Amino acid sequence: MKRKQLKLQRKRLSDQVIEELIARITSGELQAGDKLPPEPQLMEQFGVGRSSIREAIGALELLGLLSVRPGQGTRITDATDTPRSIGLSLITMGREKIRELVEARAELEQIIARFAAERATEDDIAEIKKQHKKLIQAQKNGAKLITADMEFHTAVASACHNTVFIRFFSELHQPIRHWMQQKAKYDWGFDRVVEEHEAILHAIEAHDADAAQTAMQQHIEAAGGKLAYAMQEIDANTKVE
């Protein structure tokens, strides 16, 4: 049965496409493993141009909801973390809102690092060191780098001993993980990440709140720069030839 063409009225048509695709996923109309129709069909279905379709798909791939493979088409990811568990309020943000989310993460993790430096117990510090060593080992093995990276940040968050901040961090965790998976496609090394994590660890171990906050700020700003580059790459790849 042919789907009725949608009439999209907002200025950012790609955002409308994103919201509609997410609605179909959450309703069960689109399920893990399902393949999206080809671009021409999506253009007709949504009543928008190729650039809007490509921008929407690029954004949803960046968030980890779609998997795009040349020659195999675009499919709904089969991750166990569904849009419901991530939170629609985060996923339905436009591209500028995603950048705002990165800014929010930067501010949140600076506060977390500061509190961790002030409140971390010996056990907390031991856990942060453990996760830092895992990242170093993962870097040598070239495997599970993103998992090791995020577990380090989780250990720091736990050390802040503030349940509200920990909850906020948890809400941001999965979208951030998806971004990291996408930016990894552009072959960014983890040398700087290891150094930045080490600076955070040393500051927390020394219970130097100012140094911990500064080290985290520098680390997150560097990560934000990488995200901006990834989004530029997506923009370049979604331009109509």
Explain the overall architecture:
The protein is built from eleven helices and two strands. With 241 residues, the chain is mainly alpha-helical. A two-stranded antiparallel sheet has the order 1-2. A hairpin with a 3-residue loop joins strand 1 (66-69) and strand 2 (73-76). Helix 3 runs antiparallel to helix 11 (209-237), helix 6 (95-119) crosses helix 9 and helix 7 (122-141) runs antiparallel to helix 8 (145-159). It is elongated, with a radius of gyration of 20 Å. It starts with 12 loop residues before the first helix and ends with a helix.
Choose one word for the global shape.
Answer: elongated
Distance between the termini: 32 Å
Please report which band the strand proportion falls in: under 5%, 5-15%, 15-25%, 25-35%, 35-45% or over 45%: under 5%
The overall average pLDDT, rounded, is 78
Would you list the SSEs in sequence order as H and E? HHHEEHHHHHHHH
Count of folded domains? 2
Low-confidence stretches: 80-94, 237-241
Q: Strand order across the biggest sheet? A: 1-2
**Name of the CATH first level of the largest domain:** Mainly Alpha
Question: From the alpha-carbon coordinates, what is the Rg to the nearest angstrom?
Answer: 20 Å
Task: Please tally the β strands and state the result.
Answer: 2
Largest sheet: 2 strands, antiparallel
Please name the fourth-level CATH homologous superfamily of the largest domain.
Answer: GntR ligand-binding domain-like
Structural class: mainly alpha
CATH architecture of the largest domain: Up-down Bundle
Helix-residue proportion: over 70%
Count up the helices.
11
Reported by name, the CATH topology of the largest domain is Four Helix Bundle (Hemerythrin (Met), subunit A)
